[in-house]
Design brief:
By secondary structure, the chain is α/β, with parallel strands linked by helices. Helices cover 44% and strands 14% of the residues. It has helices at 3-10, 14-27, 37-52, 66-85, 98-103, 132-143, 159-166, 169-180, 201-204, 207-212, 244-248, 263-271, 282-290, and strands at residues 56-60, 91-94, 116-119, 146-148, 183-186, 188-189, 215-219, 222-225, 252-256, 277-281. α6 links the parallel β3 and β4 (146-148). The two termini are 41 Å apart.
Amino acid sequence: MTQKEIAAEFGTTRLRINKIIGQVRASGLVNIEVRTPLADCVALEERLKAKFHLKEAVVVPALTDLIEQQRTIGEAAGELLNSVIAGRDLGVGIGWGRTLAFATRRLVVMPNTNSWVVGLMGGVTRASLTNTFEVAMSVAKALGLECHYLTAPIYCSSSESLEAFLHNDEIADVLARTEIADVALVACGDLHEHSPIPSLRVVKDNLEELERCGAVGEILGYFLRADGTVVDHQINRSIMAISLDALRQKPVSVLASGGLYKAPIIRATLLGRYVNHLVTDEAVAQVLLNDA
């Protein structure tokens, strides 16, 4: 209730209520503690930074609606990106997924015109607002920058086809950009229906084997074990994407992902130290912090 509403309830003036509150607060009879969802989130952010050696953590309130949760995380990631890129010359690397697509809604500042955007991984053959190509292009459009992307599938069918792509000069140039980009914004996915990666035929055909090898999810298409190590599987050797070692070296690498079903792969990504910024939801933050 506001002071005005309290005054009306007791038939007095707002000024008198304000005076009474001041007196009891000064006497110590009443201790006023601010506890809001956002205050709780800020406390979680500091603990996440300390536990996982992060440069920055952003925690948003947990929501029951999946799309709304992705939206809030994505938009928070966009706000974080604004603070990083304003007025600078830099390369911005982008992954894929609905959460990252939502980030474009909050991109309002402009880097210097010498900056550029690059997709960090190959894409799928069908159009989708969450495809690498579309997400990278949306970010570039929002920032008024040129866009570069890997015109290749995420997974190549054989080591020979991967080598053929790598020997293409244009693709080699884009891969070089993924390596030198100053900033990376990525998401991660679980092994099941919530993530687009398992719907790809090559992943479907290998999913049971990946799970037997200990995979808990993927980041940029690379499947990780619970401890953050890369699964030793051919599919991880057929990826058209920036290397995880290069991702780990970025001055700014942001993981924007949430939902309890993603907690294992978010934890694995943090344990592998592949990113130094995290944007997630309160429920996931609690799970990550409650782990031994």
